[in-house]
Amino acid sequence: MGKARDGRTAAEVALILRERISGHQLPPGSKLQEVELAEEFDVSRACIREVLGFLEQRRLIRREPNRGAVVVRLEVGQVFALYEVREMLEGLCARLAAEKADPASWQDLTETFDGPMARYVEDANVSAFVTELDGMRRRLVAAAANPVLSDALDSIRDQTKVIIRRIIVLPGRMATGLAEHRATLAALRAGDPDEAERCARANIRSAKSFLKRFEAYVL
After folding, report:
1. How far apart are CA 9 and CA 12, in angstroms?
2. Quick one: pLDDT at residue 68?
């Protein structure tokens, strides 16, 4: 992406809008107006059109005749389809991380998930729990060192971020998820790619099962 006229890049504008959409500050159905966005970010309309094109590629918005750009609303079938793909990609990410990273490099995360994360579950501290999960995800993606995989996972996460948070607060999900992530970390510390992939995929299947059970409350 190119430079905006004030030095802000189109990529920076896109990142801000991605966060607003994935965090539901811009909920499904919201309109994105070129003129308003250009004024807010002090960039050209050409820059905003570039940003909107990127967001459309990410399937976060769609362009409608006479309405312009509109934030996409995911249908139930689309959510489950995304989770099917996410299971495969998260498994691959864990496998590559186990293959490429020093097993000892996971010690600090193991200690976090054995200590503070257990307290977050006991205290129902969802915000802190999610923050640590995001940190683990970033570490796995960095260790996997595959930009194509990273981009694909980012795209899915952009579309499902709010759903992920809604699943975490479901009854029993934090404790179940913690046990599953500990299993993945144990496999990473053992340097076992097969087991790391199996555990990571099991975690996503488990999340999907919670989603199915509580579909009416989550979607």
Report:
1. 5
2. 86
